């Protein structure tokens, strides 16, 4: 029988790809019967239940320690939430009362009382509550397993190099994924901010979530799949089952060329990011979690140019206190020393979901600093935590989505208020913490001259600056072809910003995707950028480019590019200039592009 390749599509949440044997994961599913008990049995059932709660708490604490060591305090917080759900007094008392008054077995009593919690969450439409539901199911499954005395199931026994396929991963399972064993993950449910997405990205395991009918499809092919490899493409959002030989060889080649490139580029990671004629550009990393500081350093980052703190809330599914934030920010600062760490205040809204809140035009709505001004406690707590972490000596604070000078002034007065509150409580903080802004609205870029006089640095948020300048939603596939960083209108605003910063004696970086685009790097260095911040794995390539160009030459290229009328003209002009001015670099790119098209 000839094999027929099956391509399943889902949401790409963690880039990269893997070829390996499929491992279909099914977890313990609680099964129990309702059993009437006698008066004599009440005590035994209550103590079985209490013992299960105790054992579950012990398991969760061990797990939390493992996560803390492997991935940092922020992700370990996820388990704190589960411990508090486990110890919910109403749930515990309710179950005991149910056993005593209704005279039923512990499993049945617990699951009946639990329903009260699950039903409203199950009907909830917002991802936040759906995730909360996953946490409750996670904890209660553990409790049920411990009541029934089943051993702890393990996904540690998976053969190295496997592709894990399952309906969904519970938060504690996702947190324990071992990248030495699991080469890729595919799940039937989940979205961009699901715990599976967050954890796999943090661990750099390629992953695709939200693949409709995944389990049915693999079940239908169950007898044949184990024999052949599957392909998981976390960049394009594909799981390819029974791939054709042609497809496998395409991916194998791509894998080989990426690995070759990576090992070559890895040799550059510690090298100085200076142009041939000696202009130094700071190269730093964008991170979302403490664990990513390690990846950042491994790839040769010289600082964190953007710490997207919203994910702390999304990982914990709720408020993170000032003290917790202080610990997390201090941890990042310690790990990155002596390099700087720029902590961006919360950028909720837009593409970063606000738990339980929807609006029809989120990118133009209640987002980032606007939302923080309306939630002053949230904002103050975060600012105080950043100020406190500032005692480490390498921390800076950055405000997102600023569009008027009044907003900057208001934020600065709140920072002063935070300082006064800390001072009155004798809590140490950095009184001279640098405060910068993200330049990501056209209004801000056009007023860069004024802004530069009132803050310590700029970081251009080119992802948003492009969408707001071109009026193109950055997440809408239908208009994706209109979204182009090389649009001359965007470049003009970038130039305006860089010139205004330098004229007023402050430094300016760029932390959008444009910072890791090869043509972007050439243009930005030419325009005089001081710092580029990007996803860690792009750093060696950025260094390669910077080390292959002359500042004086790219300055000229950038100036000429700014006189062109369309993104295509600019793109062609830079490509042609590279061929004549930096032929070796042009050849390097040509081989890379060819490899990627094979
Ligand atoms: C940007 O807008 O370019 C940016 C870096 O911020 P974010 O992608 O988090 O909106
Ligand atoms: Mg932005």
Features:
single chain; 598 residues; alpha/beta; eight-stranded parallel beta barrel; 51% helix; binds phosphoenolpyruvate; binds magnesium ion
Termini Cα gap: 28 Å
| Associated small molecules | phosphoenolpyruvate, magnesium ion
Looking at the structure, what is the overall shape? globular
Radius of gyration (Å): 26 Å
Give the integer mean of the pLDDT values. Answer: 88
* Biggest beta sheet summary: 8 strands, mixed
The secondary-structure class comes to alpha/beta
Tell me the β content: 5-15%
Number of helices: 24
The quaternary state of the protein chains shown equals: single chain
Uncertain stretches of 5 or more adjacent residues = none
Strand order of the largest sheet: 1-8-7-3-4-5-6-2
- β-strand number: 16
Report the helical percentage.
Answer: 40-55%
């Amino acid at each position: 029988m000839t094999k027929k390749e099956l391509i399943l599509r889902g949401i790409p949440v963690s880039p990269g790809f893997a070829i390996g044997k499929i491992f279909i994961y099914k977890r313990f599913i609680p099964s129990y019967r309702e059993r009437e008990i006698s008066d004599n049995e009440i005590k035994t059932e209550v103590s079985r239940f209490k013992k299960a709660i105790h054992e579950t708490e012990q398991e969760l604490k061990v797990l939390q320690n493992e996560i803390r060591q492997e991935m940092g305090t922020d992700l370990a917080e996820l388990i704190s939430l589960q411990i508090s759900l486990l110890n919910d007094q109403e749930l515990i008392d309710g179950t005991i009362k149910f056993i005593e008054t209704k005279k039923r077995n512990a499993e049945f009593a617990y699951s009946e009382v639990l329903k009260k919690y699950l039903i409203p969450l199950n009907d909830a439409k917002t991802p936040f509550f759906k995730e909360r539901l996953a946490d409750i199911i996670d904890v209660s499954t553990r409790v049920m397993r411990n009541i029934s005395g089943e051993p702890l199931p393990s996904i540690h026994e998976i053969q190295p190099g496997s592709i894990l396929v399952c309906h969904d991963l519970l938060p504690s399972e996702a947190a324990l994924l071992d990248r030495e064993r699991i080469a890729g993950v595919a799940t039937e449910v989940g979205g961009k901010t699901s715990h599976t997405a967050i954890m796999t990205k943090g661990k750099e395991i390629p992953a695709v979530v939200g693949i409709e009918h995944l389990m049915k499809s693999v079940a239908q092919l169950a007898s044949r799949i184990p024999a052949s490899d599957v392909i998981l493409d976390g960049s394009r959002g594909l799981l390819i089952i029974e791939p054709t030989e042609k497809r496998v060889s395409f991916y194998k080649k791509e894998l080989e060329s990426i690995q070759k490139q990576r090992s070559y580029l890895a040799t550059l990671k510690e090298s100085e990011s200076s142009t041939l004629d000696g202009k130094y550009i700071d190269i730093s990393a964008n991170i979302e979690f403490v664990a990513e500081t390690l990846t950042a350093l491994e790839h040769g980052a010289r600082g964190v140019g953007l710490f997207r703190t919203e994910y702390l809330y999304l990982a914990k599914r709720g408020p993170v206190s000032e003290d917790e934030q202080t610990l997390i920010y201090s941890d990042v600062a310690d790990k990155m020393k002596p390099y700087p760490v720029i902590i961006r205040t919360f950028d909720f809204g837009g593409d970063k979901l606000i738990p339980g809140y929807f609006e029809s035009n989120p990118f133009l709505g209640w987002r980032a600093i606007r939302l923080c001004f309306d939630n002053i406690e949230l904002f103050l707590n975060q600012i105080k935590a950043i100020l406190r972490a500032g005692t480490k000596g390498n921390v800076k604070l950055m405000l997102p989505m600023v569009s008027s000078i009044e907003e900057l002034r208001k934020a600065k007065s709140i920072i002063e208020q935070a300082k006064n509150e800390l001072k009155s409580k004798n809590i140490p903080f950095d009184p001279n913490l640098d405060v910068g802004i993200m330049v990501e609205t056209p209004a801000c870029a056009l007023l860069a001259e004024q802004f530069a006089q009132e803050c310590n640095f700029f970081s251009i948020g080119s992802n948003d600056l492009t969408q707001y300048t071109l009026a193109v939603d950055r997440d809408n596939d239908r208009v994706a072809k209109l979204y182009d960083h090389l649009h001359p209108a965007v470049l003009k605003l970038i130039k305006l910003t860089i010139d205004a910063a330098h004229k007023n004696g402050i430094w300016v970086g760029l932390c959008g995707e444009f910072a890791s685009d090869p043509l972007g790097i050439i243009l930005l260095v030419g325009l005089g950028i001081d710092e580029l911040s990007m996803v860690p794995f792009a750093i060696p390539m950025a260094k390669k480019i910077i080390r292959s160009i002359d500042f004086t030459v790219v300055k000229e290229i950038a100036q000429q590019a700014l006189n062109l009328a369309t993104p295509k003209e600019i793109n062609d002009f830079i490509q042609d200039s590279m061929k004549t001015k930096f032929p070796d670099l042009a050849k390097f790119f040509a081989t890379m592009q060819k490899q990627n098209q094979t």
